[in-house]
Amino acid sequence: MGRGRLTTSRPNIASDPTLSNPTIGNYPLRSSTEIVTMLVMNWRTLFAVLSLASVAMAASPTCSSLADLFITNTTITSADEVPAGTYNPSGAPSPLKVPAFCRVRAVSRPVSDSEIHIEFWLPLRANWNEKFEGTGNGGFSSAMSFSTMAAALNQGYATAGSDTGHEGGDLRFGVGHPEKINDWAYRAVHVMTDISKLIIRNYYGRMPQYSYFNGCSTGGHQALSEAQRFPGDYDGIVAGDPGNNRTHLIAGFLWSWEAIHKDAEQPLPAAKLPMITKAAMAACDAIDGLADGIIDDPRRCKFDPGELLCKGGNGDNCLTAPQVESVRKVYSGAKNPRTGERIFAGWPRGTETSWTSYFVEPAEARRNEFWRLWVFNDPNWDWRTFDFDRDMAYADAKMAVVNSNDTDLKPFKARKGKLVMYHGWADSDVPPEDGVKYYEAVERAMGGPTQTTDFFRLFMVPGMGHCGGGPGPNTFDAVGTLGEWVEHGKPPERIVASHIASGVTDRTRPLCPYPQIAKWKGSGSIDEAANFACVDPSRSPQ
Fold first, then answer.
1. Three-state SS string across 439-484, please?
2. What's the structural domain count of the chain?
3. Is-catalytic flag, 217?
4. Which residue among the candidates 427, 428, 434, 499 is catalytic per the annotation?
5. In the sheet that 116-123 helps form, which strands lie side by side, from edge to edge?
6. Crossing angle, helix 188-204 and helix 218-229, to 10 degrees?
7. Catalytic status, residue 163
8. Are residues 43 and 134 located together in one domain of the fold?
9. Which residue among 108, 114, 196, 217 is the active-site one?
10. Does residue 188 share a domain with residue 78?
11. pLDDT in tens, 430-478
12. Of 158, 179, 208, at which residue does a domain stop?
């Protein structure tokens, strides 16, 4: 019989010895009834096998099939396979090195007038570490942190980012659109998180074993918002340099800009800023016992810009009396003129060279459009009319949604959540003292340090600027540290940070849980973390 031919003739069992004692496999069949029975049984087995295979295929859809998912209020616009190699998505500042992954894009409209664009990057099934990492944004920008997403992807995480519900960074997106303000303030990240878990479940056949959020600046603000508003979204959260006290941060911008420009015949020029930083460093670098080019804790630095007062006139290497007062006001921070109460932390000594783009060169204060467009709804609003008593109270009441200042994190703690927060002591965007203030307020709300450090730890980073940079060690693995805490119950007693110059690590230091500080043991290189111990400054000699 030829291959593939079907014969209708009946075989003669009596004349064919191979059929007189037929078998299925190694099982001998002794009657036609048994033959029929075994054939039926094997067809059932075959059907069962095929059914299981069909289920397995349904549980492991292709990347492109994710485009057909039905998610309430959400449309998946594309689902494409991206090969391993160099990848440069639109909006990325530079090409990224990535493994092969599935890129899913979606638009979610959870409420009227809301439109949130989201990207989900899913590693191949064999490469997935069974974890999810949500990522944050910066400023009021819609730009996603593709570099953070790529880093997560390379470590095996499924990851996601959103545009926070608008396009660009101009605050006009919120004019007449309160729901878009809500999207930016808190809703977009929560929606992104919920949808991410559904897509992960569909693609991998199971929910992520652990979910983490990782953000800095506005991303740090979003991180604290998640812990406060949606305590069940994440098992662990990294909040870096958070701008969560948003209305007061923007008031701080206005205060510092006014300190330099308002009523000043000769405003402080950018050319004098390096001189001030040099003097502050000379006065305060060695306070911690080490002359290492880092002001360990600027709160202990008492440098007074009056030391640079010109003896007469206005020289390039000195400050006029009004300029001295300007610098002092920036250091002191915004205050209520009626009560004297501090509205926001001042900018730390040692960060003066970074004031150029914030307070010195701009024609008006950074983020003045917040007051003009969102608070007073007046495109002709004049900054000179701002009252740091009356108007501050009005803004706090009207725009409370843009802040994430709730210090009661008991619901997050009750769900076994863990929170790692860090802040650069040389941050010139968000003053580090405000981060310390929030952490200490949480301690009070939770009932003391011991009720706080079992789920929330703050790491201050000497010499680090805003989310990185600066002369101090500024590269460290916050997410990995958090993972050890969440997954293995190992609370972080220290995090080793590195300073990298031209691709070479030239210094490492331990970051210590606040209020501890890293203190040199007295021997060995000051550029090696092993030669430092984390100590409580209140219990050790300075």
1. HHHHHHHHCCHHHCCCCEEEEEECCCCCCCCCCCCCECCHHHHHHH
2. 3
3. yes
4. 427
5. 74-82, 101-108, 116-123, 158-162, 131-135, 210-216, 236-240, 418-424, 456-461
6. 80
7. no
8. no
9. 217
10. yes
11. 999 999 999 999 999 999 999 999 999 999 999 999 999 999 999 999 9
12. 208
Give the β-pairing of 116-123 and 101-108.
antiparallel
Q: Is residue 283 part of a domain?
A: yes
pLDDT band at 8 (very low <50, low <70, confident <90, very high): very low
pTM for the predicted model, two decimal places? 0.88
Count Cα neighbours of 389 within 13 Å in the Cβ-side half-sphere.
Answer: 6
What pLDDT does residue 540 have?
Answer: 53
Judge if 356 and 386 occupy the same domain. Answer: yes
How far apart, in whole angstroms, are the C-alpha atoms of residue 42 and residue 25? Answer: 11
Residue 487 within a domain = no
Residue 385 has a CB neighbour count (10 Å cut-off) of: 10
Q: Which among 215, 262, 257, 218 is positioned nearest to 238, based on CA atoms? A: 215
Looking at the fold, whether 276 and 380 belong to one and the same domain comes out as: yes
Q: At what angle do helices 246-261 and 390-398 cross, to 10 degrees?
A: 150
Q: Within a domain: residue 512?
A: no
The burial of 538, by beta-carbon neighbours within 10 Å (0-12 exposed, 13-18 middle, 19 or more buried), is given as: exposed
Same domain, 69 and 196: yes
Structure tokens at 338: 């009626």
| Neighbouring C-beta atoms of residue 420, cutoff 10 Å | 26
Same domain assignment for residues 322 and 344: yes
Return the pLDDT at 47: 41
The rounded distance, in Å, linking the Cα atoms of 164 and 161 is: 9
Return the DSSP state at 182.
Answer: H
**Cβ(383)–Cβ(202) under 8 Å?**
no
Q: Based on the fold, state whether residues 255 and 379 are members of the same structural domain.
A: yes
Q: Could you tell me the end-to-end alpha-carbon distance of the chain, in angstroms, rounded to an integer? A: 97
Range of the domain at 310: 248-401
Residues 53 and 104 in one domain: no
Candidates 255, 259, 333; CA nearest to 299 is: 333
Please state the rounded mean pLDDT for residues 321-332: 97
- Computed over every residue of the chain, the mean pLDDT equals 90
Q: Is residue 345 part of a domain?
A: yes
Q: Which position has the token pair 């992807």? A: 153
